[in-house]
Amino acid sequence: MPILGIESPRTFQGVIVPNVMPNSNCTAFQRSGLWRDSLLRGLFSRHTGRLLKVDDPEELFVAALLQDLALPLLVQKWPDEYSELLQFRAATGARLSSLEQDRFGWNHGDAGKLMCRQWGLPAAFGELIAGHVHFDETASSVDGRILAVGLSSLLPSAIESEWRERDRFVSAFELCVPGVTLVDTLTDVDTCFEEFGKMFGVSGKSQSLIQRFEACALA
Asked: Which residue from 144, 215, 134 is spatially nearest to 173, judged by alpha carbons?
């Protein structure tokens, strides 16, 4: 049974493509920016998974790509509520998942997990998607798969001028992936994005990850 009236997504090599994302009347939500963010997070998670030597880094690419897939559906269903939440998030820097939890009693990670179940995707994807909103890099029991997807959720958004969680991202990366240069990692991910962005028709006009990282360092 589809969630919110949306049937199972079209796929390319098992990956969701942007045309599954519905348009919305919520002006605070930018669909194109979300797809760009999702692709970057997928590529970052795959790269980080390889650094952490997880068994199947390609699985992490898909899980991170899907982590926010529920948002277009939720925004379409409740445009007024999400317009308010997104505007509050932009003004305060609060995490959207926390605002959703306070307003609805659930968050887009929970909805993403439900969508995975309804679409017949492996349960592992649902767990990783639901878990990204509760990412705790200091937990000793966290495995590499959760770390890779969780770290990706701290990357900057193309639609926001500030990288609000940069400091946490840097410290978490250094804690979770010791001995690896972050600048090299971000540069490698940017290079992959140039290739994949063309394949999926995603604009590269926004600043790259390394440009965002260096700009924050100079601020």
From this structure: 144
